[in-house]
Write a structure and sequence with these properties.
Structural class: alpha/beta
Distance between the termini: 13 Å
Radius of gyration: 20 Å
CATH class of the largest domain: Alpha Beta
Order of helices and strands: EEEHHEEHEHHEEEHHHHHHEHEHHEH
Number of strands: 12
Oligomer: single chain
Helix content: 25-40%
Strand content: 15-25%
Largest sheet: 7 strands, mixed
Number of domains: 2
Length: 379
């Protein structure tokens, strides 16, 4: 099955499009990445998204229009990357507009926009989408979901592993050496503060290779004050986003720092948060495989290696493109939906039990499901 996985993260750096050959193999999958690109949002759409994201208020009309326009952008990006390839189905995470962890009134609340029917219109195939809300309805955080795929693709028997995704938000998947359950949770800002500072202080979308941060010196008082936020001390399940750690988290103390020192401080916050979480979980020194945009930030990887005592490598060393991993993961989650297999990890999200994740914008669904059943029966 040739699947188009679509993902847009907290960093707003664009739409990730992965064209993946997925073949069921036992309980898991053989995965071959055929094409991958990240296509940026056009400037107007990116500006409108920023104006709608926390801490800014957004009108119902703005959300409605963004849902349609982001869906069209996803569909056009996917069609461009998939040109000349016959896609069997697509799976879209969408763009998170707002995310709340579990609330006093029940499970989490989360909203990913990007109209799946607009994607279907442009690709002409069934689209799996809206993966998070079933977990929220069952009392869970709705995040993180990728650890289900991490355990499937990155487990190495006899060797404990840490999968660290450094997107806008950093999250950890702790994979034991045996067949035991994985532990996973968000650990705080990943690239989010680093990228915001690079835009404001360097006039660049990110700090290339972490060069500016490597020149700077972290402010220990600011690092300590930031990490004193009680959220960091919470045990899992837990998730977070721009609602807590967006641009508004950069208080007056940051303005007194030069650009390089501010970036070094943001790097130190992420590294310390990852290190503290790894040590508390008993995985200090375990092999670490890193994905996401932060995998290109050498200053950040060096700081994380120092804080965790781990051998830090990008997931490419395990055969998975670090930039494409999240889009690949949602392609797998879409396949799980079509198979009718629950893909949540209640221990990770806090849901009442495993749930079938996602919804479908269908096209020729009977034919597609028949092909899925045939592929699974051959596995």
């Amino acid at each position: 099955m040739i699947v188009c996985g679509l993902m847009a993260g907290t960093s707003l750096d664009g739409i990730d499009i992965a064209i993946v050959d997925l073949r069921p193999r036992g309980a898991g999958y053989a995965v071959e990445l055929q094409r991958f690109e990240t296509l940026p949002y056009d400037e107007t759409l990116a500006r409108r998204l920023r104006e709608a994201l926390p801490p800014h208020p957004a009108s119902a009309r703005a959300v409605c229009e963004l849902d349609a326009d982001v869906g069209a952008a996803f569909g056009e990006a996917a069609a461009r990357v998939a040109r000349g390839v016959e896609i069997d189905f697509a799976a879209s995470h969408g763009q998170t507009l707002y995310h709340l962890g579990r609330r006093s009134s029940g499970g989490g609340a989360t909203l990913q926009i990007g109209d799946a029917f607009a994607i279907r219109e442009r690709l002409g195939v069934t689209v799996a989408y809206d993966f998070r809300r079933a977990d929220c309805a069952a009392g869970g955080e709705g995040a993180p979901l990728v650890p289900y795929v991490d355990a499937m693709l990155l487990r190495l028997h006899g060797v404990p592993r840490i999968a660290l995704n450094l997107g806008g938000i950093a999250n950890l998947t702790l994979i034991p050496a045996d067949d035991g359950d994985v532990l996973a949770f968000d650990v705080g800002p990943g690239n989010l503060l680093i990228d915001e500072l690079a835009r404001m202080r360097l006039g660049q979308p990110f700090d290339r290779d972490g060069a500016a941060a490597a020149r700077g010196c972290a402010d220990p008082a600011l690092v300590g004050r930031f990490l004193a936020d009680p959220w960091f001390a919470l045990s899992g399940p837990k998730s977070t986003g721009r609602e807590r750690f967006g641009l508004h988290a950069l208080d007056a103390g940051w303005r007194a720092l030069g650009a390089d020192d501010a970036l070094a401080t943001a790097v130190e916050i992420t590294a310390r948060a990852v290190g503290d979480a790894v040590r508390r979980s008993g995985f200090a020194g375990a092999e670490m495989l890193v994905s996401g945009g932060g995998a290109r930030n050498r200053a950040l990887l060096a700081a994380i290696a120092r804080e965790t005592g781990s051998s830090v490598r990008v997931t490419e060393s395990a055969g998975i493109d670090p930039d494409a991993k999240e889009a690949i993961a949602f392609a797998v989650l879409g396949y799980e939906l079509l198979r009718g297999r629950p893909a949540g990890l209640p221990r990770v999200t806090g849901a009442a039990g495993p749930r079938l994740l996602g919804a479908l914008a269908p096209r020729a669904l009977d034919e597609l499901l028949a092909r899925v059943r045939a592929e699974v029966s051959r596995a």
